[in-house]
Amino acid sequence: MQFDQELALQELFEFLRMPSVSADSAYQAGMQQAVQFLQTKLTRLGFKAEVRPTEGHPVVYAERLTAPGKPTVMIYGHYDVQPEAPLEEWRTPPFEPTIVDGRIYARGSTDDKGQLYAHVKGIETLLQQNGELPVNIKILFEGEEEIGSPNLAKYLEAHSAELKADVILISDGSRFSADTPSITYGLRGLSYIEVHVQGASRDLHSGAYGGAVPNPINVLCEMIAQLKDDQGRVTIPGFYDGIQELTEQEREMWNTLPFDEGQWGASIGIDQFPGEAGYSVLERIWARPTLDVNGIWGGYQGEGAKTVIAAKAGAKISMRLVPGQDPNRITELALKHIPTLAPEGVKVHAFEHHGGDPFVVDLNSPYVKAANRALQRVYNKDAVFIRTGGSIPIAATFTRIVGAPILFVDMGLDIDAPHSPNESFAVQDYLNGILTSAYVLDELGRL
Ligand code: BES
Ligand code: MN
Ligand code: MN
């Protein structure tokens, strides 16, 4: 299948130059540019494409239903990206895509603008080749995935009739490895909370008061330290209740994957793998829940030293969840338990940010087999079946409202460094992604 590679890169670069950061209202203009860009492009491809408001950032909804009797495929992606901070860590500007050693460096290059746009170009390639599409296509590109999709469920409920499809196609994650195509069949869920500890009514001289007053930072650290035991298990009562253990069959399947712990660690500069006892690295990431502090603040953060006892300290804590765990219940358990860990003399305020359901897909579906045939056409290899530790909070709601299973055909790699400074997407992965999209749609059209 042929397409103009140079043009495909140019168009993606134009899209990546639009700073579509959903978390920060200073980027309104970038969000607006991105939806306009997508609407214009999809309209040119013969879609009925609209920018639709939500209570937050708009969605782009488009459809081209010109293949009677063929399946209807819903393609989901997100045009919003994570904030670029810390800017000083970027070797090239985050919103000026730059190719270095065969990789496109830019915020959103892999998560998710590059993967989203590979589908747009895959569709275009099919149209150029055949003049028609092999399936009916509906497209929903949202702008709030990176902030937990707070308004999308409401939008979906309100538009459920037009969203019906036979299968949902999503590319918003990582392949198993550079030379192994994969189909992702599970995501972890998420519960994200924040905890504040208040001590004195103002910051104090650490000499004049230290030793005789509660120190909120020390207290917070002691509380956090109690949230996991020496076996790496989360200590929140009830946290593991009802969890679906991974099956022997999955365990065996994962054991045969060509996964090299040492190499994996080396790519991120570590050589020790602490975690829950009794589980391999892949099992811990893909099938076990965990709790991590994602940010912590309090006291003096500036240059040099300042002798001070802060009045207040805080931590942002994410819990990744697996099938059997309900994010609302886990959030409740955490918010109830954490304040009980505080000593007398401080005030604790714990509250929720957002959550999302864990998710697994049935591997025995004709859609999965079709995707495998498509990947064989691109890579000349069978796909492996993997799960991922990341989350797409809307996935469970989406599958319910669309009334169809999700097919996760990821195009990126973890080493693309999504969410980090110097996020990138290999040029080859983008080009293969375009082919993958075209072949997956083609194979779905043969069902
Ligand atoms: N594309 C990721 C999800 C992902 C990450 C899939 C890694 C596969 C591997 C998505 O954009 C994301 O970052 N999700 C957030 C959800 C959060 C912001 C509510 C996540 O997992 O942290
Ligand atoms: Mn993403
Ligand atoms: Mn992301």
Automatic annotation (TrEMBL):
Gene3D superfamilies (UniProt xref): 3.30.70.360, Zn peptidases
Entry-linked SUPFAM superfamilies: Zn-dependent exopeptidases (SSF53187)
UniProt keywords, alphabetically: Hydrolase, Metal-binding, Protease
Occurrences of domain Peptidase M20 dimerisation (ranges): 186-345
Claim: Transcription regulation is one of the keywords in the record: no
A GO MF term: peptidase activity
GO biological process terms on file: proteolysis
Xref: InterPro entries: Cyt/Met_Dipeptidase, Peptidase_M20, Peptidase_M20_dimer
Coiled-coil stretches: none
Protein name per the record: Peptidase M20 dimerisation domain-containing protein
